[in-house]
Automatic annotation (TrEMBL), chains A, B:
SUPFAM superfamilies with a match to the protein in the record: alpha/beta-Hydrolases (SSF53474)
Reaction catalyzed: L-homoserine + acetyl-CoA = O-acetyl-L-homoserine + CoA
Subcellular location field: Cytoplasm
Protein name: Homoserine O-acetyltransferase
Protein's pathway: Amino-acid biosynthesis; L-methionine biosynthesis via de novo pathway; O-acetyl-L-homoserine from L-homoserine: step 1/1
Active-site residues, record numbering mapped to chain: 167, 336, 366
EC number: 2.3.1.31
Assembly description: Homodimer.
Domain AB hydrolase-1: residue ranges: 65-362
Alphabetical keyword list: Acyltransferase, Amino-acid biosynthesis, Cytoplasm, Methionine biosynthesis, Transferase
A GO molecular-function descriptor: homoserine O-acetyltransferase activity
Binding site for substrate: 236, 367
Length: 387, 387
């Protein structure tokens, strides 16, 4: 398989431009694998799909120690530090001696279909060598999971010891359990319910419009020209507010002005006033994302997230999950106001058997699934990662 | 005074184009009064300010029965039905025989400074006859209240029996009590706290960017050309989500598609998929606002709302209100997730004496201050409107 893999820069979009090589696999270094053509749930097809991924640790002889970790909307494959210096986004959970111990488990993290961290997405080249752009088809959570199942085949993983993820990563973990009941032993779903709600769809629509209304977006065909940075930045601001709690924002920023800027002084009109700290903070969040993420991928993955509904076409959530054979581990963040804890509770009730919902205690809001994931470590060791 | 008043169409922006007349005042018909030049809090000035307003009922001989009702962000002066057929936005509260009985009280509702329903705003003509546009200065809640105080002088109202408002109208009511302690007997503040919080500022910033990033906005100088309808529509969507509760949106719309539209079918790409019902609903909300509101006024009033902070420059909220002589009546909506009930509670604690916070029981969210205002009727009759 190494003949088809490509090493790259850890956690970097440059990975997809890496050269094919036969170098040995290293922990936390991006590789890419072809998984073939994919017919898509909403119609259309992709002729040639590649998924980028990173791995940590070694698959054991009977391939029973493999763990799939699924990233969130703008996340990447670099879940743990590994070979390079760059920290991972779930370092508190994954690594040597950590609850998901990479000295015992073979950990895989794949970039989602449609993403911009190495997997086939709108910025990838089509068979004619032109970026997909506006022609990139509609991909759903289920499409991505089907591609990931082929990657698992390629990696020699018939059955995952565990599939886990938070936020949109949790949606993919849940779909794994529904689509491939024999291939998931433990399923860990953090900070998301069984479907995207009307409110989550509404907030997503606003983000999509922010990008699509940016004239630089050009319907998605902006490659080679100016990028829709204003639109993507606005989308990020809308999203980021929803990722944080009201208390968090108010405690950190209140009504203070940014540095020496005075929000209440603007003889020339409000457009010239100083910024509030919270505005400057959101400007910074927007700038950071714009520097690392492709607007078309933001659109594609947001559309996929809107499609999240494990019960769709399966007679509802309970029926969809009746055949799931995984042991489920659910968790929610108690201050989450985007994926309310009640939605995790509702999912738990739809699952076979008694499934408790663990609570992450955080003031920060939804992003507690990233910053406070360590709180689940002991329970995960006890129930899922017992090696 | 009638020599300076202008009748107009009830609740219509056309009011500001009305001719001067000596016609007698009629209930619920827009009039306009000049209130002179205004030096502004954030610097700058307006040379000649007009406020549009409507009235209901008759001012009694000792001018003791006057009530000022303050509208919210995109509200207008048409609080009650009156002479015309058009319903008012607080008809459940204001009218003949209603808690604010227009057969007993003289009710006034003024369009806020910066608005587009007849008061001086960005779409008004400057002294040279050119729309203000980008040159319209930064106006705050306090600036508007100072202009309203001059309107009260013009109307012969030395002291209001009550000043009341919800949302941004509540902010102006509160400022009245702080700025003119001798001129407010009862102050009714619904569904807003003593200041705009970091989160409210953050949500406002996103709305401002949605408009300002629309190329048709042209910095505010779009009059005579295409209007920034896409930007204003997006701002409205962002705002409207915050006005409604998650439960309301999910109960009404869930994940259903709009009519025959299928959100999961789009062989040509996600941009071509059918809409979810909640998307169609927000499209409709956006279209409605775009058809009745000026983008520059939306910006000006949003900026004013961000400035809301009764304690600013006055040693904090408690000190600012220590000298207030009004009897306060506070209320919050129990499902409000934009102006949380806790913020009304915090304001109550900052007020002199014991001030209870009445609770409007509504599933809808913030907009309950409009749809469920009737719930406060009995308490308002008991405590404020006792005639």
């Amino acid at each position: 398989m190494t003949l088809l893999d490509r090493p790259g820069v850890p956690g970097s979009a440059a990975a997809r431009r890496g050269e094919r090589t036969t170098a040995p696999r290293q922990d936390g270094v991006v590789l890419t694998a072809g998984v073939g053509a994919l017919q898509l749930e909403a119609g259309g097809a992709l002729p040639e799909v590649e998924l980028s991924y990173e791995t940590w640790g070694t698959l054991d002889a009977d391939a029973s120690n493999a763990v799939l970790i699924q990233h969130a909307l703008t996340g990447d494959t670099h879940v743990a530090q590994g070979h390079g210096a760059e920290p991972g986004w779930w370092d508190a959970l994954v690594g040597p001696g950590k609850p998901v111990d990479t000295e015992k488990y073979f950990v895989v993290a794949a970039n989602m279909l449609g993403g911009c961290y190495g997997s086939t997405g709108p910025s990838s080249l089509d068979p004619e060598g032109v970026p997909w752009g506006s022609r990139f088809p509609f991909v759903t959570i289920r499409d991505s999971v089907r591609a990931e199942a082929r990657l698992a085949d390629r990696l020699g993983v018939r059955r995952w010891h565990a599939v886990l993820g938070g936020s949109m990563g949790g949606a993919r973990a849940l779909e794994w359990a529904a689509m491939y009941p024999d291939r998931v032993r433990h399923c860990v779903v953090v900070a998301i319910g069984g479907y995207s709600t009307a409110e989550q769809i509404a907030l997503a629509q606003a983000q999509l419009l922010a990008i699509r209304q940016d004239p630089a977006y050009r319907g998605g065909d902006y490659y080679g020209g100016p990028e829709p940075v204003a639109g993507l930045g606005l989308a990020r601001r809308i999203a980021h507010i929803s990722y944080r709690s009201e208390a968090e924002l108010n405690f950190r920023f209140g009504r203070r002005g940014q540095g020496a800027e005075n929000p209440l002084e603007a003889p020339g009109g409000a457009a010239e006033r100083g910024r509030y700290q919270v505005e400057s903070y959101l400007d910074h969040q927007a700038d950071k994302l714009v520097g690392r993420f492709d607007a078309n991928s933001y659109v594609a993955l947001t559309e996929a997230l809107m499609s999240h509904d494990v019960g769709r076409g399966r007679g509802g959530m309970q029926r969809a999950l009746a055949g799931a054979r995984a042991e489920f581990f659910l968790a929610s963040v108690n201050s989450d106001r985007l994926y309310f804890p009640e939605q995790s509770d509702e999912l738990a009730r739809a699952l076979p058997g008694e499934v408790p919902v663990h609570s992450i205690d955080a003031k920060i809001g939804h992003d507690g699934f990233l910053t406070e994931i360590g709180q689940l470590g002991a329970e995960l060791r006890r129930r899922v990662f017992t090696l």
